[in-house]
């Protein structure tokens, strides 16, 4: 429940709209109850054959309640659904924003199926609870209280009977439905998430699983999740059945009880005959309200469960040690009152690593003791066997990971020296330091938007220049898909989720080049590029690495992690990482001369000409 | 969309027992409702008009108590078993949907659309999970109500008629107005439910794409700004939903008012006749209580129909997928690949929106036991050529020929794909990680592999070193998207998989993509091992060391008909040499 409150607070349902929803809902239900009650009175009174004029008020009341019920119900549904949907959108947006700024490990720890469940089904469930969980309770309390008061005014005993029944209905029924259902709902949620994961795993890699002959086994896994789901649903139905039965029983008892005290009272002459129908009909109408409560209660339980999964994501950022947004911008303190955010270029930006260790938080550092001076315009290459933490090091150099030891600092003209990257405002830093990860994502949108992700305000001309520099000049000029051309073509990564009809699927090489174009378009003075040559044939790969290392603007600093050695002659310095330390460093020529493993790897690369068939 | 889709009813056969049970409970509940109304009316009339005392009506009160108690039990039972029908049908439909998706792949598969009814994996997944779950409302509420309407509405009408024929006639005349209105309004909202589901799916894909790109956005520092995209997608969805709801609720409002007016018409008649003394109070009260019940099932059908629209729309989409013809498959069993020569015979694959085919007229042979490298600049069709060879897609022109030693040659299209795939192990660019342990993943191609075999294979590929660093080692769990494994580690896992497989033909797509020059040795060792075992290897290769390790190279950039790749600027690969 605590989690639910946290999440609901995030959804910020508009208080007036929520209240309006609750009161229109209560009024609608009240109208229905009043309709039956007044009708009962009217008919009994009519049977006493009074002058028709005596019935006029009641007749008008019946009409008003009849029409009012429908109209009020309609308004209530629209208001409550709107409140709920707005809340869901806000929740999704907030979740995404939190994940965007949270610790890397949080985002990486969530599987795609999980994320889909959190941002999809869970968010919907949390919207649902406003309509189906919270409002029905408020409505039931208001109308229950009003009905009890009404009967009390007619006959206090009847009021007491109804009060007792309503109390049981308002408390015992939902508690039974809720407590019993809780454990089962958890089981269902797990089975659903498991199923979602299994279905995604099957469909995402269908060709591979087909060739491997494992689709049958994956289908069996899905069938197992389905079994679990069916069992969970069945278990969840059991306490729900008890709650529904109790709800019906308790309100039936109220009808019977009110009728009995009413009969006695009429016989004793305590009340007039016309009220007897009212005493029986009001509990009858109120039964509908109480019978809706088990569902409301289950909705609350489900929402609480969804909230339990969602709330930790909302809280990330609050107490994570390394969340850049959590540290207030120290611009004024460190940067002499200048907001880096507004600065496009930092003249003389100089990144410095001092005895730097790089590693994921909570794990052993992958690389230790690195000293590196990235003066403006320097071109550095980092090579070494895979799995040695080169990518982790690159992230640390860019300030995306906190140093596992030592310091990662920046100096800049007019700003100051020795500022820890951890203290620099994230967005300012990212604008200065652009990192292209080896698994960087191409979005299922236009070429233009894919580049603008890194360069919000860039003109088409600038984007075309960036594409040209990444070797995509001719490609973009010829690109067309359906009626779209050039920058307007929607592209997609064949492995990514965002592809539909009219999408131009990119091959591995084109994808890398587009990512490089994105880096160039960003205009950042420091480029960190991880494996630009992956998935490419040797000469294209070398061209790309060379393109990064030989970028024409003299002020631009570049660090490339690569497995291609041939183009590294262009680098000012090459660092060989092996065994968690810098095993060797120097220029390309120095390493060929003085570091045998480098020389042999380079030699292997040089026998490039493929054998002809 | 029809309120009753016969295809869905056919599916519902799986759950007929429960549909019948639910309907039976509904009939019993309503019968008790009628008895309850009559008893209530009798007791009130007797006491209020005839001045009877409690002792006089005691019997009726006891009966009323029994009726109410039984109703409570039935209500519980309804809740207990009502959901089972939906569970069974949704499950069956999901299974058929996924099975259809798996059967769509094959040598006869047309290059486009990418998948059933133009759906990609994420959309299919959404349909197969949340989309179908929406059927619950249709099957547990709408369908039983529909059956109740057919049986109960006339039954209650008969009771009213029997009590008071004038009221009965009034009800009979107003009753047809409701289905008429329902049909009118249903037609209007059906279109919107369709759109709403589409929008839901678009949102799903869109948000999924943004989430997949989250690490990238974070690295660039603009992830926060993209939250706006999530909001605008969500707002679009909200507007679409509210539009559907406005119509759906408006129709509910119209129905409600229609029913209220009808009941009022009955009530006014009763009231006037009561005042004139031509009707007794018992009949008046009974009719007043029963009149709304005539309309109730119809109204419920209306309400639940709108609630089940999403489910119906999802079912419609599922049937659209299921009705896509599955490509015909060959029936010949595949020859023993250890003694069969494979050939690309003038294979071209035309991609949508790309002027030239890639590959374009590829002709080449692969002999058993040979290691062949496919080379060429990116975008020249290496991956497509592999897909054709694997029998996963149909070439636009040309075919894969199979020439078993001492037997006449035939085309891959005639071969039963199962027997073909049984002899192939394939490592694609993005190898799959199935939810399960590392061990389950590494033995994906041969679950019977022993621990010793696994250890040996992992040693060759260097995956051993990776496993050692993972807590729980071989029993640690990995999930969708490869939690805890880097791309390079995942690649090594896939290589280990290949080594454990007993397939004759090994197909590798860019096997060293994540390995650097230093650890290329591991892949070379793998190739050497495969060569020793006499396996045939077709690999998409870029690295000279790998190309050098191959017996032969098929250079796609040098295909004679003159390659014009999708990126002419990338044709640097042509300097890599032209094949004979």
TrEMBL record, chain A:
GO molecular function: ABC-type transporter activity; ATP binding; ATP hydrolysis activity; ATPase-coupled lipid transmembrane transporter activity
Pfam families xrefs: ABC_membrane, ABC_tran
Cellular localization per UniProt: Cell membrane
Residue intervals of the ABC transporter domain: 351-604
Keyword ATP-binding on entry: yes
A GO CC term assigned to this protein in UniProt: plasma membrane
Domain ABC transmembrane type-1: 19-271
Main location, first listed in the record: membrane
Family annotation (PROSITE patterns): ABC_TM1F, ABC_TRANSPORTER_2
Domain of life: Bacteria
Recorded topology in the membrane: Multi-pass membrane protein
Signal peptide: none
SMART domains membership: AAA
Keyword annotations: ATP-binding, Membrane, Nucleotide-binding, Transmembrane, Transmembrane helix
Name used for this protein in its record: Thiol reductant ABC exporter subunit CydC
Organism: Kineosporia babensis
Lineage of the species this protein comes from: Bacteria, Bacillati, Actinomycetota, Actinomycetes, Kineosporiales
TrEMBL record, chain B:
Topology of the protein relative to the lipid bilayer: Multi-pass membrane protein
Name of the protein described by the UniProt record: Thiol reductant ABC exporter subunit CydD
ABC transporter domain sequence ranges: 342-580
Organism: Kineosporia babensis
Major localization class: membrane
InterPro entries: AAA+_ATPase (IPR003593), ABC1_TM_dom (IPR011527), ABC1_TM_sf (IPR036640), ABC_transporter-like_ATP-bd (IPR003439), ABC_transptr_CydD (IPR014216), P-loop_NTPase (IPR027417), Type_1_exporter (IPR039421)
GO biological process, one term: cysteine transport
NCBIfam families, per the entry: CydD
PROSITE patterns per record: ABC_TM1F, ABC_TRANSPORTER_2
Alphabetical keyword list: ATP-binding, Membrane, Nucleotide-binding, Transmembrane, Transmembrane helix
Taxonomy of the source species: Bacteria, Bacillati, Actinomycetota, Actinomycetes, Kineosporiales
GO terms for MF: ABC-type transporter activity; ATP binding; ATP hydrolysis activity
All copies of domain ABC transmembrane type-1, residue ranges: 20-310
